Amino acid sequence: MKSLVSACLLGCPCRYDGGTRGDPELIAALGEEALAFCPEVEGGLPTPRPRAFFVGGDGAQVWEGKASVRDEEGRDLTAQFRRGAVRALAAALAEGCKEGLLKDGSPSCGLSRVDIQGHKVQGLGVTAALFLRAGWTLRGHD
Ligand code: SF4
Q1: How far is the centre of ligand 1, averaged over its atoms, from the C-alpha of 103 (Å)?
Q2: What residues are paired with 99 via a beta bridge?
């Protein structure tokens, strides 16, 4: 079954600091059954980029219009994060993916924990929240 996978888990150096979280065992296990995608890059953000965090709630609340995403320099990145999430879902549907495997802790891909104004709390990233709203099955990976 083909999966959309956070690109950094597959070795792409697309994290905010230019790093990766490539997992050789995961890469070997997924083989051709993975669509690598980075919502932040595809949403129009550069790499490296300042660290981003939520204000007012998590990714689910971003889609309700109750929260925003900002970076360390105070810029509002909500539009870029929403755009990246929509593009991720469109790509997953176009490629016939049936599930998502996302990097936890990220303001885009986080599935169980995120940063809200400097506090690590339970919550969803913007992309994870959109996929769940669309009824997808997601798995998280540290
Ligand atoms: S966690 Fe998601 S948004 Fe962040 S670098 Fe990895 S793929 Fe991109």
Answers
A1: 7
A2: 3, 137
CA distances from 99 to 104, 119, 138 (A): 15, 29, 6
Q: Whose CA is nearest to atom 4 of ligand 1?
A: 15
For residues 23 and 45, what is the distance between their CA atoms, to the nearest angstrom? 24
**Residue spans of beta strands (DSSP E) within 8-112:** 34-37, 52-55, 68-71, 99-103
* pLDDT tens for each residue of 27-56: 999 988 999 999 999 999 999 999 999 999
Check whether the bond before 50 is cis (ω within 30° of 0): no
Q: Is this structure's pTM higher than 0.90?
A: yes
Sequence ranges of the domains in the chain: 3-141
**DSSP E strand stretches across the chain:** 3-6, 34-37, 52-55, 68-71, 99-103, 113-116, 119-122, 137-141
